[in-house]
Amino acid sequence: MTFNIITIFPDIFYSYFKESIIKRALKNGLIKINIHNLRDWTEDSHKTVDDKPYGGGIGMVLKVEPIYKTVQFLKKERQKSKNKIQGQARYGAGKKTKVILFTPRGKKFNQRMAYQFSQLDQLIFICGRYEGVDERVAKHIADVELSIGDYVLMGGELPAMIIVEAVARLIPGVLGKPSLLKERISKEKGFIEFQQYTRPEIFSPKKRVKWRVPKVLLSGDHKKIEEWRRKHKKIIASRS
After folding, report:
1. For the chain, N or C: smaller number of CB within 10 Å?
2. Are residues 192 and 229 in the same domain?
3. Which strands form 122-126's sheet, in the order they lie side by side?
4. What is the pLDDT of residues 22-38, one digit of tens each?
5. What is the pTM of this model?
6. Within 10 Å of residue 33's Cβ, how many Cβ atoms?
7. Containing structural domain, residue 99
8. Is 224 in a helix, a strand, or coil?
């Protein structure tokens, strides 16, 4: 899986992807993350990526031309890479690229989408900034308009990091043992969340207050523990 991120602020990403599980997945070659500065696909001396909106309005809008050039370049590079590998069949018929544009009006991202994305070869993220992105990007370049919630951010960089993490953890080997992931995925490809506790058995934040671990989890009775977990589980985002 390759994640290609198009942004005008590439430095935002570097520290985040150098930590924890993402760092290990990159080191082990399980995923690739490439950060692309949109200004590299401009032709003027000022490397202009935005302009005033037609019809008037406050702020600036990201231009369609550099975004188109960047996406076309990334698609061609991916195809060249695939052509160099013998046995194209192992990529599978369902393997392909999706171009994602982050926008508050897009489909709301959920766990089922994360699973669907994890089956692809490549994800290309377009991170908007300022007052938005030329509408022709949404109409003719992006495959999916995506939102991470009903609120407005300053750009698409944080959503890109969220999608990378949610998808990367579903790539085989990223979390280590396959069982760690398998037991938490529902039949509908949602995520099974249940209450969890660890030591101490009793925590007293102040006098006469005791927060206890449920007795069933201390019983050693695996059948009862499984029943308790089923009773308290919550399936997160199983529908797209």
Report:
1. C
2. yes
3. 32-37, 2-7, 122-126, 97-108, 144-147
4. 999 999 999 999 999 99
5. 0.87
6. 20
7. 2-168
8. helix
